[in-house]
Specification:
Order of helices and strands: HHHEEHHHHHEEEEEHEHEEHEH
Shape: globular
CATH architecture of the largest domain: Roll
CATH class of the largest domain: Mainly Beta
Number of helices: 12
Largest sheet: 5 strands, antiparallel
Helix content: 40-55%
Radius of gyration: 26 Å
Number of domains: 4
Number of strands: 11
Length: 324
């Protein structure tokens, strides 16, 4: 690590140390060393630097450090509604499988909350305890080291126009392939991130899931030039249109309201029929849709296409077999 990088890391740590002691007073040197993953000696040096720079540090009777009441960084002038919007975004990032995104979300939250006006901070503290974006994800998600930092590496490759070499797993062939790509964009689809990139092997723009990248290396020399005819929004529309099939599903009145709110696509047509509702929409992953439909049991029926009906029937039979 260069001297410049070490100085930047220390500056970030000093700033975060002030925020941490403001939001969580009475932390001991051992607590702080564990939080920042540094030695206690480093923490003592940081505290001395803060004291010499005018931050009013004191050692509490309870054995921890705190900053005297009244010392504040300039408040961040956000309304309660604006702060709530930021909170939702931060909580969403905490659901990501890339552990570095979760850590960054924690750090951002700490910095924002520490400089909010007292009344806004009180509102956010109360709201945070009462908001859960996805309780099922919290109980099942297992973030792994294999994806840590990958999103950030690719985001820099996108903005810096750096070619990426990677090992990419293709599930349909159960095969690990080597690819060289020019990254053009990052897109979040439902529950995973995708890299849109020009594939040197296929000589066309392709779609790569980040959770299928086994390893990668970002080039540091020559910058690539994006294809002249590439437009991201047009590509997304054509991608969906090329893979989608028109789906028709009946929901009876007991589940119709909930079903329409949770359909994983934009409903294009809705018709009241047979005491329920028939909805039509385009969708590309029929296997996923078949599994999603089973949650409604006998209150839903896949009517088109025929392939979807077969998939639902197969999934239902597999469930029935499980309980024999």
């Amino acid at each position: 690590m260069s001297h410049k990088e070490r100085r930047k890391n220390r500056t970030d740590r000093l700033f975060e140390l002030v925020l941490l002691l403001q939001s969580k007073p009475n932390m001991t040197s051992r607590d702080l060393a564990e939080y920042f993953d540094v030695s206690r000696r480093t923490i003592f040096r940081d505290l001395r630097v803060l004291g010499e720079s005018g931050v009013p540090l004191t050692f509490a009777d309870s054995g921890g450090y705190e900053i005297l009441e009244g010392y504040q960084l300039p408040p961040l002038m956000l309304t309660a509604r604006e702060a709530s919007t930021l909170l939702i975004g931060i909580e969403f990032m905490k659901l990501q499988s890339d552990l570095s995104l979760r850590k960054n979300a924690d750090h951002v939250e700490l910095k924002i909350v520490a400089v909010l006006p007292p009344e806004t901070k009180h509102h956010i503290d109360n709201l945070k305890a009462r908001i859960v974006l996805d309780p099922y994800w919290l109980n099942t998600a297992k973030p792994g080291d294999e994806e840590e930092g990958r999103w950030h590496e690719l985001s820099h490759a996108v903005t810096d126009r750096r070619t990426v070499s990677m090992e990419y797993f293709v599930p349909s062939r159960d095969e690990l392939t080597r690819r060289t790509v020019d990254p053009l964009a990052l897109i979040y689809f439902t529950d995973h991130w995708n890299l849109i990139a020009f594939d040197h092997l296929r000589k066309e723009v392709r779609n790569f899931r980040l959770d299928r990248i086994e390893s990668m290396h970002v080039g540091s020399m020559k910058r690539f030039t994006p294809p002249d005819d590439f437009d991201l929004q047009t590509y997304i529309q054509e991608l969906g249109a090329a893979e989608e099939q028109m789906v028709e599903i009946f929901f009876d009145k007991e589940v119709a309201g909930h079903a329409k709110r949770t359909v994983p696509a934009r409903i294009q047509k809705e018709t009241a029929k047979d005491g329920g509702v028939v909805v039509r929409f385009g969708f590309e992953n029929l296997s996923y849709l078949a599994q999603w439909l089973l949650r409604f049991g006998v209150h839903a029926e896949a009517r088109a296409p025929q392939e979807l009906r077969k998939l639902v029937k197969r999934e239902a039979a597999a469930v029935a077999t499980r309980y024999k």
